[in-house]
TrEMBL record:
It comes from the Bacteria. This is DoxX family protein. It holds the Pfam family DoxX. The chain crosses the membrane at residues 45-65, 72-91, 103-122. It is found in: Cell membrane. InterPro entries: DoxX, DoxX-like_oxidoreductase. Belongs to the DoxX family. Signal peptide: none annotated. It comes from Paenibacillus sabinae T27. GO terms for cellular component: plasma membrane. It is a multi-pass membrane protein. Its main location: membrane.
Length: 130
């Protein structure tokens, strides 16, 4: 059962990150870059984050490089909390989202980084490891 839940967590987290990356594309990366700049971040990071979300999401869905992708996503999430969401508080302030969902994503990604993956993954099929 643990194996099936781990697969579910990995695939769902991958879908969610893929959706976030697609959302950035739909908004227009130039607009996202402008928003990054407005909160004091280098605008090029919008492109980096979008790529990480898109590629990382697909890799998680496939179960390829799960541990490494999970660590990179944790870094992105911690960055989002400290640069964009911390001031809004845990649950948000009515004008901006809080960081409660980011914490949930971080914990799931941390589990995947530590536990590895399952039999139903490209990691296991290609490298025979979890």
């Amino acid at each position: 059962m643990k194996n099936k839940v781990t697969v579910l967590m990995r695939v769902v987290l991958g879908i969610l990150f893929l959706a976030h990356g697609i959302s950035k594309l739909q908004m227009g990366l130039g607009n996202v870059a402008g928003w990054f700049g407005s909160i004091g971040l280098p605008e090029f990071l919008a492109y980096v984050v979008a790529a990480i979300e898109l590629i990382g999401g697909v890799l998680l869905i496939l179960g390829l490089f799960t541990r490494y992708v999970s660590v990179v996503l944790i870094i992105v999430l911690v960055g989002a909390v400290f640069t964009a969401k911390l001031s809004a508080g845990l649950l948000g302030n009515g004008q901006a989202a809080g960081y409660e969902l980011d914490i949930a994503y971080i914990v799931i990604a941390l589990y995947l980084a530590v536990a590895g993956t399952t039999d139903w993954s490209l990691d296991r099929m290609i490298f025979n490891k979890g």
